[in-house]
Design brief:
Elements lengths: L16 H16 L8 H15 L3 H12 L2 H22 L2 H12 L6 H16 L2 H19 L3 H18 L4 H8 L5 H30 L21 H11 L4 H19 L4 H4 L1 E3 L4 E3 L1 H8 L1 H19 L2 H10 L5 H19 L2 H18 L4 H12 L10 H10 L13 H4 L4 H16 L8 H12 L14
Antiparallel strand pairs: 1-2
């Protein structure tokens, strides 16, 4: 077989980090200047791509790697889901669901200071039910955020609560793709990884809930001037059936795209029949100016910023893989992993770094799964412990990276709702410190690896059985692909 050519760079493999570093510095600069919008990220990532091209020895292979990264099936699914989600978000806003929820919230008489905590708990429940952070972000962002903001809650706290809650289920739900990968990639069962990782989720959750309680008590006496509609119409509450149907279908195992298509289509019919929207609200064509708008078109255009950025980012990830950076990094890290504790620290640091580069938890876990299993086996680290270290890193740090999809999706829905003069730091960079659950989970798992809290080791019998699987049956090949996949 013909050996696949490796993408080489002037200065060696570590130079692959230069394009990502340039992009990251540019995004931070935008954040500090209050201009960190998804569309503003485009020039920064294009700068990174240009630097990569200049540093690549084989320019054609570099472009081929970019195209290969962009042509992934995962990206196609993500884009389709986001555009459909944008339509659903516009539908819920135009049909008066937000006003209906505000009416209900005021009727119950709950203090708005507690809204971030309520938001976190609702998002956590949704993500536990569906097992997907992206699905929860899509369902919760266009509903919970506008309600809280209209009531006067701190927008940074709300969006941070939505993102953090969305990752609770991504880390803990048995039906989550990350949970499944963390178990199967380490040769163990889902029930074992879930039971053993509850302690980490409880620790991070307790820190998060404690933070929101303190913030609620601090803000309880603050007077906030809120501009609410003169008349709040509760009829829009019937549109709550749309996200509930979406949630129900995902719980029943439907994929996100299917669930979005069905729930949005039914939502449009319900809104038309009830008189909450008119046909012109769905599609509005201005023949004089040759322009078009409406719920469908505006919904799709609302997601263009995050979609274009992600297309470029997936291209850069393609060059990262083609350049052999991950394999190089794994080889280098083995020299540090000389004891069980060092092996666990290596797993955590490596997983956090790769997630920073890819901003994609499940693909990162697939790439690192075979390496983590072999390294953990060498020091007899229990399979569920290895899986938990890998999963906790992959469902936490991407929650507060300003260029991560998890942060950009909410901003695609609600970025233009907030008064920037009142909240100048309301940007993907400014929201990072307020994604408390994800930050707490990173701190918890780093502490666990360094201190040994939660460490478990294999029995002699289990160790010998896994040795046979790894080295006799050749269950995993050199590329890190498992027959379990």
């Amino acid at each position: 077989m013909k050996r696949e050519e490796t993408l080489q760079f002037y200065g060696g493999v570590p130079v692959l980090l230069v394009p990502f570093a340039a992009m990251f510095v540019g995004i931070l600069w935008l954040g500090f200047t209050g201009a960190a919008l998804p569309e503003a990220f485009w020039p920064m990532i294009l700068l990174g791509i240009l630097l990569g091209l200049l540093l690549a020895k084989n320019k054609k292979l570099y472009i081929d790697s970019l195209i290969h990264g962009i042509s992934s099936n995962m990206l196609a699914i993500m884009l389709l889901a986001w555009f459909l989600a944008g339509i659903m978000g516009k539908l819920l806003s135009a049909s008066g669901l937000i006003e209906g929820l505000v009416w209900g919230f005021l009727t119950m008489g709950i203090t708005v200071a507690w809204f971030p905590l309520i938001t976190f708990l609702i998002s956590a429940f949704m993500s536990m039910s569906t097992g997907t952070a992206v699905g929860t972000l899509i369902a919760a962002s266009p509903i919970l955020f506008p309600v809280g903001y209209m009531l006067g809650a701190d927008p940074l706290l709300i969006v941070g609560a939505i993102i953090g809650g969305s990752f609770v289920g991504d880390n803990l739900a048995p039906i989550s793709d990350t949970t499944i990968v963390s178990a199967y990639s380490q040769g163990t069962t889902i029930d074992k990884v879930v039971k053993s990782r509850i302690r980490y989720a409880i620790a991070a959750g307790a820190i998060t809930i404690g933070f929101y309680i303190i913030m609620a008590m601090v803000k309880a006496n603050e007077s906030t001037t809120v501009q609410l509609p003169d008349e709040l119409n509760p009829l829009g509450l019937i549109m709550l059936s749309v996200p509930l149907l979406l949630l129900f279908m995902m719980i029943k195992g439907k994929d996100l795209v299917t669930a979005l298509l069905y729930s949005t289509s039914i939502g449009i019919i319900v809104a038309l029949i009830s008189g909450l929207i008119q046909f012109n609200d769905i599609l509005l064509i201005n023949r004089a100016e040759f322009t078009a708008g409406g719920i469908i078109i505006d919904g799709i255009f609302g997601m263009v910023g995050v979609a274009v950025f992600t297309i470029f980012l997936m291209g850069m990830i393609g060059t990262l893989q083609k350049g052999g950076f991950i394999d190089w990094l794994m080889v280098k890290s083995e020299s540090f992993a000389t004891t069980p504790k060092r092996a666990e620290i290596t797993i955590v640091c490596l997983a956090l770094l790769i997630n920073c580069l890819t901003t994609a938890g499940t693909p990162t876990m697939v790439m690192l799964g075979s390496f983590v299993r072999r390294l953990g086996h060498k020091f007899r680290i229990a399979p569920w412990r290895r899986g938990n270290l890998l999963d906790a890193c992959s469902t936490s740090i991407i929650g507060f990276l300003p260029y991560s999809v998890a942060v950009l999706i909410p901003f695609a829905f609600i970025g233009d709702m907030v008064d920037k003069s009142a909240y100048p730091t309301f940007t993907p960079v400014g929201v990072a410190p307020f994604v408390v659950y994800c930050i707490a989970m990173v701190a918890v798992i780093i502490f666990s690896a360094i201190s040994g809290w939660g460490s478990e080791y294999m029995s002699e019998k289990d160790y010998m059985e896994e040795s046979k699987e790894l080295y006799d049956d050749n269950e995993y090949d050199g590329a890190g692909d498992s027959k379990l996949a």
